[in-house]
């Protein structure tokens, strides 16, 4: 008998889907609905919503959090890719005072332009976590804060400090542009269907005004430094591919400057970079233990010597 029930469940949903409460949740979309009302309320409390706020919600699912936010805010803009969830959400508010306060945008949030909003609240599909964080942080005008649910290890990377095991390019880039802190841990049994991993909620507040740094340039440097974060910077900058990129960028920058900067025929980018690292005491530093201020200083040293990363 137990085997028959198991077979029926598998036939009903397959490996990518789970049936619950009449709805088949698609795990390929990262659909894990937050079912614990105490956790939902905790997230909303941390968002500190105001009656004048426009809230952007990513992945509203069946609307457990959406309805609570509609009670506290001026308007909720819910972004959803699954038409079944859109129908469920609209049905939930139909005929209520909240119907006119809810706007639903259908489609992939990564491919869409974000609307104006004050606060972002999201139970993020884990597979889009990283690109969405940077889409959010580069969004203008500035928003007040974001309360986001992530896979726990991803959340730990966001808040990691120099020297931590999980400190990485994601940590540096996020903390350059925002103040980020851990808000709460959420066990997998608080979701339907339960994901395979534990989750955590983080609060992100954009630094306003943003640092006066070209983010593409910054990210190019950080990417190289974290290729092997335990190696010295001298070792990271010996790579043939890195040297070819920097040599090309150097010559393009010099040629396009006004007036153009003369580049000798015997110019050696490898020697130029190694000299910069040695003279500025970066030769033996490792990305794993460098602070944001360290990276800012390193980028300034390179740029002043006409070395660029994009």
Explain how this protein is built.
By secondary structure, the chain is α/β, with parallel strands linked by helices. The chain has helices at 2-13, 37-47, 64-72, 83-93, 129-137, 152-159, 169-177, 215-225, 233-236, 240-256, 269-279, 292-304; strands at 17-20, 23-26, 33-34, 54-58, 75-80, 102-106, 119-123, 145-151, 178-186, 191-192, 199-206. The protein has a 7-stranded mixed beta sheet with strand order 6-5-4-7-8-11-9. α3 (64-72) links the parallel β4 (54-58) and β5 (75-80). α2 (37-47) packs parallel to α3. The longest helix has 17 residues, at 240-256.
List keywords for this structure.
two-stranded antiparallel sheet, 12 helices, seven-stranded mixed beta sheet, 18% strand, 310 residues, alpha/beta
